[in-house]
Amino acid sequence: MSIAPQHSVVPITRAAGFGPLPHLITEWESERALHKAFHAQGLPLSAIDDPYLYVPQPAMVGVFEHAARSAGRRDFGLHVGQRMRFHTFGLWVQYCTQAPTLSEAMSRARKTLQFHQNSARFSLEREGNFAVWRYRPTVRYENNMQHTDHIIYPMLQSVQAFLGFSWRPAWFELNYPRDAEAHVIENALSAPVRFRQNAIGVALPLACLYQKGPGALRNPITFQDVQATETLPYLQDPLRTIMAMATLRLRDGRTDIDGIAHMAGVGVRTLQRYLGADGMNYRDLLALVRSRRATELLRDTDMTITEIALSLGYSEHANFTRAFTRWTGRPPLSYRREVRRSTQASVIQA
Q1: Rounded distance, CA 89 to CA 112, Å?
Q2: What are all long-range contacts of 281-290, with beta carbons under 8 Å and residues at least 24 apart?
């Protein structure tokens, strides 16, 4: 898959963007086809278990295309998007739909997309008597039809949340050329489709922008709530992307610097230079990623200390115990007991 060299590091996006893809390919093809689609892109299948995990966007695009070929369905991506719901993407979409008007919802989406991915932007652009709500990736891919198609329905549904689910747009826009099987997509959609555009878009009359929404019935979500879901809150690119890739590869127990550099789309020396600019080296990065993952596993799972050590790339649990004690000031077993006592106390108090 060829990518235009616009970024020094690979674009990243939340694993939530896979949506129901794993279930759909298993339903239409097989479990084996699902494994092959992820393996072909160098992604651990465990990525689908954590919607907040960041994955390389080119790899996600590749999984969509591979899955569609395996299932033999031109409308595979469209069906994935059709089965998506607001909660699929996390709090940032719910925050948007609680806006007082559709226009404000779109403004919120522009500000909070950064908490889902770093490789696209939303825009609202006037075209005559219409406004076009557009999603514009900053990196263009040669083969991206399926991933593009899966974005159509979530964009449509976000507008329908304000205008009613029987509402239909004036037209859709897609950022790839019309192909021989494009009629499958055209027949499935409820409005004309404009191909070969520079964005994925939904067109609506200007007056619709002032339509009031359902609002927040209870416990309104704030921007700070959305911001709190960021798993890499204190990092900026390229370090943010590098750490995201290290976190992803650790899911398979892989810790080599060459693999992280390859997945981040840079050379090893470039990666080391990026780390050095932030006062880090590869050992620091690996320790940070391992410590974060270790605390998650100790807190949220019943894995043994040995199993956790092996999953983090340690050959012996004693090495992991020493490292964890160095990071936190206490052995992993003591940390787990303390966390669970604290949790039980909170439940009793509540």
Answers
A1: 12
A2: 282/257, 285/242, 285/243, 285/246, 286/246, 286/255, 287/323, 287/327, 288/243, 289/243, 289/246, 289/247, 289/250, 290/250, 290/255, 290/323
Q: How many CA atoms lie within 13 A of 289 on its CB side?
A: 30
Same domain, 192 and 258: no
Helices (H), the chain: 21-28, 31-40, 57-71, 76-82, 91-97, 102-112, 145-163, 182-188, 223-227, 239-250, 257-264, 268-277, 282-300, 305-311, 317-328, 332-349
- HSE on the CB side for 197, CA within 13 Å? 19
Whether cis (ω within 30° of 0) applies to the bond prior to 238 is yes
Task: Please indicate, yes or no, whether residues 308 and 192 belong to a single structural domain of this protein.
Answer: no
- Measured CA to CA, the distance from residue 73 to residue 76 in angstroms comes to 5
Is 11:138 a contact under the CB 8 Å cutoff?
yes
Residue 40's pLDDT is what?
A: 94
Q: What is the pLDDT of residue 7?
A: 46
Residue 219: per-residue pLDDT:
78
Is pLDDT of 260 > 60? yes
User: In this structure, are 59 and 38 located in the same domain?
Assistant: yes
User: Do residues 150 and 280 both lie within one domain?
Assistant: no
- Report the amino acid identity of residue 213: G
Domain with 207 in it: 12-227
146: in domain: yes
Cβ-Cβ contacts under 8 Å for 43 (sequence gap 6 or more): 55, 56, 59, 63, 248
Q: State the pLDDT at residue 119.
A: 85
Is 89's pLDDT higher than 90? Answer: no
Q: Rounded CA gap, 147 and 136, in Å?
A: 13
CATH of the domain at 22: 3.90.1520
Total residues found in the chain within this entry: 350
Helix (H) or strand (E) holding 54: strand 54-56
Least Cα distance to 163 among 212, 130, 124 occurs for 212
Tens digit of each residue's pLDDT (9 = 90 or more) over 151-169: 999 999 999 999 999 999 9
